Amino acid sequence: MIKMEGIKKTYKIGDIEVNALQGLGCEVKQGEMVAIMGPSGSGKSTLMNIIGCLDQQTSGTYELDGVNIGGLNDNQLAEIRNGKIGFVFQTYNLLARTSALANVELPLIYSGVNHRRARALAVLDRVGLSDRINHKPNELSGGQQQRVSIARALINNPSIILADEPTGNLDTRTGKDIMNLFAELNRKDGITIVMVTHEREIGEYAQRIIHVRDGVVHDEEVLSR
Amino acid sequence: MTHLATLVVALRGIFANRLRSFLTILGVIIGIASVIALSSVGEGSAQSIEERLGNLGSNQLTVSPGAATEGFKRMAQGSAQTLSYEDALAIASSTEVTTVEAVAPEASTSAQVVIGSENVNAKIFGVTPEYEEVRNKTVAEGNWITQDDVNSTASVCVLGSGAAEDLFGDSNPIGQTVKIDKRPFTVVGVMEEEGGMMSADDSIYVPISTVMNRLNPQRASDGDHIIGSIYLQAADGQNDLAMSQVTELLMDEHRIALGDEADFSITNLQDIVDTFTETSDTLSVLLTVTAAIALLVAGIGIMNIMLVSVTERTREIGIRKAVGAKRRNILMQFLLEASTISVIGGIIGIGVGIGASELLSGSITMNMSTIETIITPDTIIIAFFVALGVGIVSGVYPAIRASRLNPIDALRYE
User: Fold this and answer.
1) CA-CA 20 to 30 A from A222: which of A150, B98, B116, B279?
2) pLDDT exceeds 90 at position B197
3) How many domains, in total, are found in chain A?
4) What's the gap in Å between the CA of B399 and the closest CA on chain A?
């Protein structure tokens, strides 16, 4: 599913070069649920951006679903993000003043699907929000907003869901509910999930934890359930 | 991504910020409405000048007497009695004057005109047969003054449409008798209504000999018959040559040495028409420029709002890009938003402009007559596309900026 080898990412901030990733390699298999953990500045956000095709590596190879991402242009990256990847952000990133339904439909607009409503209703039902479809983000609780964003991530049947600190803004109880939803999506629907977190408790919902430090994979642990 | 979906997204953007969108649209409304209203005034004034002056004939020259002097005081041009019927005959018969096609002398006076109990004071013009053609007069009923009438100093008259109505109301005046200065005259014709500025509808025409010998006999010291003006019809495109030929002849007739001041003047009707047209053209240009400035301001307003909107919605753009929007999707979204604003403003502005033009119609006075505003379909079509153009032009830069945003930075934007 995900195959990364020798990934380097160098930023230029003014005259200073920052080496965020320094030859990182990792693999995620189809149907896996993996957590990426590491202290701040370890490069885990950069890694997420590259996996999510929001950014591209300076060197090294990244293969997603058998497609070499390295050689793609802006439009092709947009298509990959649209069709293969579902994003779940810490701050939900829903469109303000826009109903839950319209937010969930958003990726379908960009894939040119005309009958969006039925599919959006189905995924909203899947995340348990069928009674909140016309509510706008500011009328929903944090947990509900995160469910809307999970529904949005699911709508295009992505190969992979990328969750960046998905419980960072939620209380422990709601956070657990959300993690249970992820675990269920992974177990029942076989969706590959990669999440970034710095909470061990959240990381333990995954089957495997990849520890990143100083821009490389420092350690991997397989959790037995 | 379907076009309909893009349009819906753009409309949502407009409705999300109602007040701001409305104010921006208002700018376009004012711009387009002023274009429509002001250009209708310009168009109307041009048309009214054409209507009022076009029928006077552009080949027409007018010879007027010079200014009289009373002591050291110089009176108005035309106040002297220096033109004679014999001058007109000389122009007509001269072999030197080759570019004048017709000569129409005019001797005028005013007199009481009476029929039964109706009594009006009317301007009486003594004319010749040529007058009808040279001055573009049209007889509605009956006949114009003939050469026989002139030769026999006949007591016949042709009534202007207004004079006929005043004296006879609805009944037919032809063949009836009116008393002009207590003398009986037979009505032989009635003129078509002219209307407009310099209208002669209230005038009465009689043979020129009748004015010179009966109604208002005036003789110069050499026995010539004094008349008011001589109208000339120049050959096509020969106005200037005709003017100089006639000037030369009359200077000679009046025994004025070349280089001395003439005791008459010749005006060219085309010059007057040109002056009016020029004034009206200048007015049109000024109005158009004013309207264009209003539109420019509206365009700046749109661009300003779109730039604010792009900055404010950086996060939204980031989200859209993260879920798969391509550059061109974002570009189209903002471009459509800007053009929708301007097209809505344009359509409302066209309506408001038509309304304003209706209100202005007849309330503006220029050159002594009111202007009826005219809106041509061209104006409306041009206004619509100008509005669309303003939207696209002022939307392009903000839209490009939006489409180039890096999704990672855009998502982090607070």
Assistant:
1) A150
2) no
3) 2
4) 17
Residue of A112, A114, A90, A94 lying closest to A103 (CA atoms): A94
**pLDDT at position B105, please?**
94
Q: Is residue A90 part of a domain?
A: no
Residues B283 and B405 placed together within one structural domain of the fold? yes
Coil, helix or strand for A124?
A: helix
In this structure, are A68 and A116 located in the same domain? no
Domain carrying residue B325: 3-53+274-412
Picking from B234, B262, B290, the residue at the C-terminal end of a domain is B262
| pLDDT at residue B48, rounded to an integer | 78
Q: Based on the fold, state whether residues A203 and A165 are members of the same structural domain.
A: yes
The reported pLDDT for the residue numbered B69 is 58
Cβ <8 Å between B16 and A87: no
For A137-146, write each residue's pLDDT tens digit: 999 999 999 9
Chain segment B120-140, per-residue pLDDT in tens: 888 999 999 999 888 888 898
Q: Are A196 and A163 in contact (CB under 8 A)?
A: yes
Cα separation, B240 vs B38, in Å, equals 36
Query: Using the 8-state DSSP alphabet, how is residue B226 labeled?
Result: B
Give pLDDT, residue B82. Answer: 82
> B261 — phi, psi (to 5°)?
-75, 130
The beta strand positions in chain A, using DSSP E, are 2-13, 16-28, 33-37, 59-64, 67-68, 85-88, 160-164, 192-196, 208-213, 216-222
Q: What is the pLDDT of residues B320-341, one digit of tens each?
A: 999 999 999 999 999 998 899 8
pLDDT confidence bin for B280, thresholds 50/70/90: confident
The H or E element that residue B109 is part of is strand B100-115
Separation in Å, CA of B329 to nearest CA in chain A: 8
- Tell me, yes or no, if B412 comes closer than 8 A to chain A by beta carbon: no
Phi-psi region of A41 (alpha: psi -120 to 50; beta: other; left: phi over 0): left
Q: Are residues A36 and A76 in the same domain?
A: yes
Chain A touched by B380 (CB under 8 Å): no
